[in-house]
Amino acid sequence: MVAVSDTEVFFTGFPGFLGSALLERVLARGDGPVACLVQPQYLETARRRAREITAGIDRVDDDAVRLYEGDITEPDLGLGEESFADVRELYHLAAVYDLAVDRDLAEAVNVRGTEHVLEFADGHDVDRFHYVSTCYVSGRYDGVFTEDHLREGQTFNNHYEETKYRAEVAVQDRMDAGLPATIYRPAIVVGDSRTGETDKYDGPYYLLRLLLAQPDWLSVAFTLPDSSDAELNVVPRDYVVDAIAYLSAREETVDEVYQLCDPAPLAVPRFVDVLAEAAGHRTVTLPTTKPIARTVSSRLSSSLPLEPATLDYLDHPTRYACPKTMQALEGSGFEVPPFESYVDRLVAYVLENPTVGDGPMV
């Protein structure tokens, strides 16, 4: 049995989009060494990203990131003979981020996987557990959803939302039993606000790519009966990572939940207009019902960049508020930039990188 006694931080979700950026922030502030649980199929990608990250940080050597093959869907995380003696903090980011995910896969990764990571944390007497959830544990809650909400009898748009909800319930139950943890709930995460970089074209990117697939002199988008009352709450990756890095380094954030959402999001019609303007497309919104829109989307999804599951967010009834987050970040310099201030960079990145896919890391 191999003991890694000097590993202070344990990560799941590397080399994912958020996990890679957060790992860099954690190392840059002096924490580590970091042990990363990596699925075998992503090991080479993880090695490359680990080299890039350590090379870009002064006074951090290559050994600061240690990769271990494993899988959160296995009871022992698939670590086999590996043993970790001094894990001080654990960051759990691994999940299936896919609105159309199959129920069994979502259950295995998001729910049972989180339970396995919680068991690992308990078995190693972890001093601090950091869990990345999602604002959309709200499901279709009708009203304002804050950090204090969770079990509200809500229905869910899809298996992703439902399993992330159940995973957070499991984490909060452990918190109630004494686990020192912090929960972070990002809204819809898009690319970096400074560069536009992303590694997955899902969520609002389906709408953007649908517009880009049509003539710029006249493009068509759907609008549903309740779209004018719905908000599309979008946050860029750099804000999410900066906020988690800042909050996770503070002792007073233990036992708290923080929603990393836009306190002033755009209504769906305005969001579509802003996206179309940035893409340089003259756009007409076609009023329709959700059943018709879903049927059309399903039939066209093989030839156009469409995902029928995204239609549920065009009339999403929930509004998100983040009073605890705003208070905790006050004076930090971290705040959500207006979508209008960086949408042009998101569009430019998509135009310059057409081969990026929309599939989750599973």
UniProtKB/TrEMBL annotation:
**For the Thioester reductase (TE) domain, which residue ranges apply?**
12-244
Q: Would you kindly state one Gene Ontology biological process term found in this protein's UniProt entry?
A: long-chain fatty-acyl-CoA metabolic process
Please list the GO terms describing molecular function. Answer: alcohol-forming very long-chain fatty acyl-CoA reductase activity
Cite the Pfam families for this sequence. Answer: NAD_binding_4
Which InterPro entries does the entry link to? FAR, FAR_NAD-bd, NAD(P)-bd_dom_sf
The protein's matches in Gene3D superfamilies, at most eight in alphabetical order, are given as: NAD(P)-binding Rossmann-like Domain (3.40.50.720)
This one is known as Male sterility domain-containing protein
